[in-house]
């Protein structure tokens, strides 16, 4: 980049949930921008495949197998990355899961599965990374919440609850870590096409609804989030912390109702 204020060159960047979907796109975007990237996930084969595709011979993407719902595994993984590189400059806290079904049908096991990864896991990853960042006196934590933190969508209530917690976590950590030179923000994506959502958006009724209610007239791609993520980690965002940055094509800007363009009463 010509303007160094927007640079993440050589920043050690840990991407939780970086093997697929949004995490993979962010990891690829950071690597292309010159960062030193480490991706984590639960499946080693998927991690290795992703690292091979988005890395390069002169700057390989490293991998760490880690289930963020396992606090002990999180602590060991974060400490290992810190010891290897000497610092962690950026955390992209992306790992997340969802189950789509009515709230009345959730079992305790299903509820715990969603919340343990999306909220508990996100907290303990941010906590461990935040401790190292506070000691080094700098760092940027970027969480990922959801359109559901604007208004909960039907049949994904535990997911919406977990992401609502991520917003409060972001603000609380911003307050506590700010005096130590650490900034904490979150990106709230709109409807993003990924491998996990392709089936949902392949339904013509769903696709038409999503595109009609997004002012920019299309669903998002995971790559649409890269610019915001780079900005939040850069010096250009040096006075931003505790904020939710919505990258949703304008979905939350207003309600798109079927009134004729000519107006009327």
Short characterization:
41% of the residues lie in helices and 15% in strands.
Report on the architecture of this protein.
There is one protein chain. With 265 residues, the protein is an alpha/beta fold. Helices cover 41% and strands 15% of the residues. A seven-stranded parallel beta sheet has the order 3-2-1-4-5-6-9, with helices on both faces. α1 (21-32) crosses α8 (226-233) and α4 runs parallel beside α5 (157-177). The relative contact order is 0.14. The model has no long low-confidence stretch (mean pLDDT 96).
Secondary-structure map:
Layout: E1 12-16, H1 21-32, E2 36-41, H2 44-54, E3 62-65, H3 71-85, E4 90-93, H4 108-136, E5 139-144, H5 157-177, E6 182-189, E7 192-193, H6 198-201, H7 204-212, E8 220-221, H8 226-233, E9 244-247
Helix pairs in contact: 1-8, 3-4, 4-5
SSE succession? EHEHEHEHEHEEHHEHE
SS strand fraction: 15-25%
Using only CA atoms, what is the Rg? 19 Å
Share of helical residues: 40-55%
End-to-end C-alpha gap: 51 Å
Question: Class by helix and strand content?
Answer: alpha/beta
Quaternary state reads single chain
Uncertain stretches of 5 or more adjacent residues: none
> Could you tell me the number of beta strands?
9
Features:
265 residues; 15% strand; 8 helices; seven-stranded parallel β-sheet; globular; two-stranded parallel sheet; single chain; alpha/beta; 9 strands
């Amino acid at each position: 980049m010509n303007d160094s204020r927007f640079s993440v060159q050589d920043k050690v960047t840990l991407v939780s949930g970086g093997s697929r979907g949004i995490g993979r796109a962010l990891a690829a975007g950071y690597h292309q921008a010159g960062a030193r990237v480490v991706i984590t996930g639960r499946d080693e084969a998927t991690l290795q495949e992703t690292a091979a595709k988005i890395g390069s011979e002169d700057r390989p993407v490293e991998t760490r197998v880690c289930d963020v719902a396992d606090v002990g595994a999180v602590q060991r993984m974060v400490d290992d990355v810190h010891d290897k590189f000497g610092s962690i400059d950026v955390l992209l806290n992306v790992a997340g899961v969802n189950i789509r079904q009515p709230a009345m049908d959730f079992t305790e096991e299903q509820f715990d599965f969603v919340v343990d990864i999306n909220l508990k896991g996100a907290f303990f990853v941010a906590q461990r990374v935040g401790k190292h960042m506070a000691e080094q006196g700098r760092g940027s934590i970027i969480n990922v919440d959801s359109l559901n933190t604007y208004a909960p969508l039907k049949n994904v209530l535990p997911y919406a609850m977990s992401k609502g917690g991520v917003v409060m976590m972001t603000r609380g950590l911003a307050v506590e870590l700010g005096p130590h030179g650490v900034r904490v923000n979150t990106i709230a994506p709109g409807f993003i096409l990924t491998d996990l959502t392709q089936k949902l958006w392949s339904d013509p009724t769903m696709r038409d609804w999503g595109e009609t209610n997004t002012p920019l007239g299309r669903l998002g791609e995971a790559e649409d989030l890269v610019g915001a993520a780079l900005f939040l980690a850069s010096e250009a965002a040096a006075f931003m912390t505790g904020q939710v940055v919505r990258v949703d094509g304008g979905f939350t800007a207003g309600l798109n109702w079927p009134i004729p363009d000519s107006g009327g009463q």
